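Chain entry —
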Amino acid sequence: MGIKMTFEQLCELLQLPSEVTESLKNDNNVEKIVSDETIRNELNRRDSWDSAICEIRKRIGDDPSGFHILNVLLHCACDTWKHYQEKSIHDSVFADTMKFCTRFLYEHKKTYGYYAFTWAWWFPRQLAMQEFRIGELEYELIPSDSKRIYIHIPSDACMEPSAIQASFHSFREFLNKYFPDWSGTDWYCESWMLSPALSELLPEHSNLIHFQKMFDLVSVDYESMAVLDWVFPGETPELDKLSENTTLQRNLKKFLLSGKKFGWAEGKLC
């Protein structure tokens, strides 16, 4: 791809929906924002991510589909690709990481019937090279006085134990090669999948139970109902109206209707 990735090459690499790609190509209002060094620098600093996204939204104005801000951030991703090249990180890692956009576009279409991008607030992690998808999982490097690595679980991840272990192994190799200062850092995960209540809903041999047993529980927020967003995407919060299409949905619905609390948990990899 030479020393520069074009926007067209990026859209092709990420396999964006053709409908979205055409809309992005017809948007001519991004260049002025993308060329603003202040915004670009803010997108690279964790403490200014939110303010950068707010400023971009302000400059864009009306953007019901989220395509305008997606366009801006994808143009920025072309520069991120150059930084991957400088570190000799393979294009497959870049593509897998940035395809979180593609995944959420298709998921929005499946849930609501039309394409939209609502995850601009998350995109700076990828642009600043602080999150990478390696195999089935995503890993976020959080710099601080006591730096941590957080594991994120994409909705399309295979949760087979062998696939999870392969991802862990590949990411350790990735760290050793490209970010050796992060080798040996503790790994954490925050997810509904770590809730202790899950053991009441699924058999002990299930992949999700196997996954949560790999972590020592740090905390549980039993008041959180965020699990509904992931197990019942796009549905009403009224418990009695929730779907019952899967075993997990049926069991979780019954569990919540009985008055029990499921929550959201954090764990540290053993």
The two ends are 41 Å apart (CA to CA). The chain has 13 helices and six strands. Strands lie at 131-134, 137-142, 148-152, 187-191, 215-221, 264-269. The longest strand covers residues 215-221.
